[in-house]
Each structure stands twice: as structure tokens, then as C-alpha cells.
Write a structure and sequence with these properties.
Length: about 350
């Protein structure tokens, strides 16, 4: 089969012919029907920093946001029926480290992650542990199921931020994660959700389609100037950083209320400079968030049942897997927001 792989620690990806995987005990063979292109894939494509750990693992098939049909199961199917559409949790704890053995698998230091440390979903077939395959609820189709992974990241960020009814929320970064954070903050009954972007017409269109109205495009200016007139005296309870631009953290803190929470969700290629005296005096809380624990997945699949048609607006492009390189180029140059690749097309 042809798989879209990172083959060398430098700019680029390429299609390579690789053997179709064979499921081991406790694994399912899945025919991938939809795979999302993520900012992570773009970073790895560009090799712009943050993924050096992958170098010794290459060549490796990219793609960690994917769904597909169960074709075969080796061993106990655990209720998975052949043909069932599943969303796949891409990350698997090792099961044998001290964290895993003490029941804290979320903290496993040796987890394997499809698309970054094991072969991922930009291929027609993949194997995955049966326990990582979650049946899509009725009414959730392939492309929506492929959105589950980025949605869990956003839902987890909103839970980390502790958004509750009446909160005033600022989301910096209008990409898929920022879009979904804004949506889940709304669903958590935040009173106000403001999303900030920078020269981002396309992604603002997506945000509007999602029903978000309070959007600020800072254009070529800086965040502080753009927000100062409106929010200097009306600070936010919770701020989400979803840009990967480290300077945004310091700038954003100027608009966080005393004891407010700033959640950092982006992957940053550089260090940030922070005014720690202000942080201490304002008793600001900075929290990091990354992948979601398993228990967040069913909650997100449920949200796809109730909000699926709204969430579908996040998908701006649908392309055949063969056009994967072109898709990464589109995403890299921000001419697409979320692209779904389908091997069968
Ligand atoms: Zn992703
Ligand atoms: Zn472990």
C-alpha cells in the first residue's frame, strides 16, 4: 500500500510503498476512510522544530486523526463488529512502566503514538489495539469521526481551564483547536467567547459558520494594541493560547483577571519570556494541556451526535489521500483550515 511518510529529518514528506499491516493479538485491522491533516503534521512536514524526537524513528507514516472501518480482529473483538465505523485513539500507554502499573496510564512516559512515534493514518490501512477503537455513534459519519481526535484535545483544554457557566473566555488562535475550544467553551455555558486571529479570513469564516460571532482579526498589529481599547478594564476569566506563538502568552496575560487561568495548548518552537513579577502579583495560573485522557473521548463522540452538523463546518477541504502533499502545502500556507484525506476517493 502507498503511505504518506516522513522519511528524513528535513523539509518534506513522500509517498512510499509499504506492506499492509497485519493485526497482532488484541488488535484490529482498519480500513481508513477519513484522516484529518493537523498543525502537528504541518510542523513535521516543515520540520520547523518540536519534533526532533522523531528523527531516529523515520521513515514513519504521518496522520493521527483518523477513522475507518473494522475489517478484521485478532483475538477478542471486545464487541467490535466487522464493518463498524470507529474513531481511533492514536496514543497507547506502554502498560509496564511505574505510572501504567499504578493505574496512572495518562502519565506513561513510554506511550506510543500513531502518526508521531508509530505509523499513522495517512495510509489505506492501519492496525490498532481493539481497546483504542471506539465505535462511532449512530449518525456520526467517517469525516466527523476523524474529527474526534482534535475535538478531544480542545475539550480537554476547556476542562483544564475549568470553564463554567458565566465565564468570560478569550481564545487566541482561530485554527481547528481554537475553533473547537470556542465551541466547547460555549457548550460549557461561558457568557462570552472572544476569538482572536491574525490575517485569517478563511478560518474566521469557519468560526462564523460555527456560530461564533465575537471575532477579532488583529491584522498586522499586535495583540495588546488590538485588545486594549475594549478589554483593558474588562479582563477575561480564562484565556486559551492555541497559536504556537510563544509571545502570545505574555501578551495575553495582560488581559487575564486576577487569579485567572491561561491555558497553553500550542506547540512552541521557541521559549517564551514572561514577566513573572506580574504573574505573582496577579496570582495568574498558567496550565499546559495536550492530548486528552481516554474518558474525554466518549464525551466528544456524544457531542458529535448533538453538534455534528455544526462541527462539520470545520472541514474546509476534502481530498484524496493521493493529494496528501498538496494538502500539507495548503495547510502550511493557511489556504485551508481542516482538510480530510480519504484513501478510497
Ligand atoms: Zn492533531
Ligand atoms: Zn507506561
Amino acid at each position: 500500500m502507498k503511505a504518506l511518510q516522513k522519511t528524513a529529518p528535513t523539509f518534506g514528506v513522500e509517498f512510499r510503498e509499504v506492506p499492509r499491516p497485519v493485526p497482532g493479538p488484541g488488535e484490529a485491522l482498519i480500513e481508513i476512510t477519513a484522516a484529518g491533516v493537523c498543525g502537528t503534521d504541518v510542523h513535521i512536514f516543515e520540520w520547523s522544530g518540536g519534533y526532533d524526537f522523531m528523527a531516529p524513528l523515520l521513515p514513519l507514516t504521518l496522520g493521527h486523526e483518523f477513522a475507518g472501518r473494522v475489517i478484521d480482529v485478532a483475538g477478542d473483538a471486545n464487541g467490535l463488529a466487522p464493518g463498524a465505523l470507529v474513531a481511533v485513539i492514536p496514543s497507547t500507554p506502554c502498560g509496564s512502566c511505574a505510572h501504567c502499573l499504578s493505574g496512572a496510564a495518562e502519565s506513561c512516559e513510554r506511550r506510543s503514538a500513531k502518526g508521531t512515534s508509530a505509523d499513522g493514518g495517512f495510509a489505506p490501512w492501519i492496525t490498532a489495539p481493539v481497546v483504542n477503537c471506539l465505535a462511532a455513534p449512530n449518525g456520526v459519519d467517517d469525516e466527523l469521526a476523524a474529527l474526534a481526535e482534535p475535538l478531544t484535545v480542545a475539550q480537554e483544554a476547556v476542562l483544564k481551564g475549568g470553564v463554567t457557566r458565566g465565564d468570560r473566555v478569550l481564545v487566541i488562535g482561530p485554527g481547528t483547536i481554537g475553533q473547537a475550544i470556542a465551541l466547547y467553551a460555549r457548550m460549557a455555558e461561558a457568557a462570552e467567547v472572544v476569538v482572536v486571529g491574525k490575517n485569517d479570513l478563511l478560518r474566521f469564516e469557519t468560526l462564523r459558520a460555527l456560530g461564533l460571532r465575537d471575532l477579532i482579526d488583529i491584522g498586522d498589529g499586535d495583540l495588546e494594541t488590538a485588545l486594549a481599547s475594549r478589554f483593558a478594564d474588562q479582563k477575561f476569566d480564562i484565556i486559551f493560547e492555541a497559536t504556537g506563538v510563544p509571545e502570545v502568552v505574555q501578551e495575553g496575560l495582560a488581559f487575564l483577571r486576577k487569579e485567572g487561568v491561561l491555558v497553553v495548548a500550542g506547540i512552541h518552537p521557541r521559549r517564551a519570556a514572561l514577566d513573572l513579577t506580574r504573574l505573582v502579583r496577579e496570582r495568574h495560573q498558567i496550565r499546559g494541556t495536550q492530548r486528552a485522557p481516554r474518558h474525554v473521548w466518549p464525551r466528544v463522540l456524544d457531542s458529535l451526535v448533538t453538534e455534528g452538523e455544526r462541527i462539520r463546518h470545520m472541514i474546509t477541504h476534502r481530498m484524496p489521500l493521493d493529494h496528501g502533499v498538496e494538502a500539507l502545502e495548503l495547510a502550511r500556507t493557511r489556504r485551508a483550515s481542516k482538510i480530510i484525506l480519504s484513501p478510497g476517493v
